[in-house]
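Listing S7. Sequence submitted for prediction.
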Amino acid sequence: MIFGEIIRIALRALTVNKLRSLLTMLGIISGISTATVLISAGQAVERYIYDLFAGIGTNVLFVVPGQLTENQDPTAEPRFGELTLSDARALSNP
C-alpha cells in the first residue's frame, strides 16, 4: 500500500463513521484538557505551599512540648512544662 492510498482510506473511514469520529475526538480533547487542568492545579498547590513555608521566615522558632530525651522511656507518659515570660525573653534575645 502506498502512503496516498492509506490517507484516502483513513479519510473515507472518518466520513463514513461521523458519529464515531466525533465521539473519539471529544474523548481525546476531554482527556488532554483534564490532564492539563490537573497538572496546572497540582503546580499551583505546590507553589502555594512553597510560598506559605517561605513566608514563615528564618526568625521564627517553633517550641514543641513533650520531646523525648535520649534516656527517656518512650512508653512513659510525657511531661509538659510551661513556658514562662523569662523563657520567652531569653528566646527573643539571642
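Caption to Listing S7: primary sequence and predicted C-alpha cells for the chain studied. The mean pLDDT is 84. The chain has one domain: 3-92.
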